[in-house]
């Protein structure tokens, strides 16, 4: 919900949802769409560099939503928790920072444009 913390990235398998931004613009979401994908970019931007051979984790900070997502029909989806996304970005940050990979992601996500 708008103003709440984004704590997961949701992959829609079946059903219809809508995302309403703080500006009132409604974006329909369907099978194959994702919401909460800004978490991936956020963790990449906020992950620190290696220190003493270890990557430090982002602590005490959370991303706030600027939209509300509602189900319009029964929905089947799966989700990745923020902690899981943080771990993936930490383990695979070199791969995810590759310009070709970011180009592919930005083609699909408005948060990477």
TrEMBL record:
GO terms for cellular component: membrane. PROSITE patterns: CNMP_BINDING_3. This is Cyclic nucleotide-binding domain-containing protein. It comes from Opuntia streptacantha. GO terms for biological process: monoatomic ion transmembrane transport. The keyword Cytoplasm does not apply. Keywords: Ion channel, Ion transport, Ligand-gated ion channel, Transport. The keyword Transport applies.
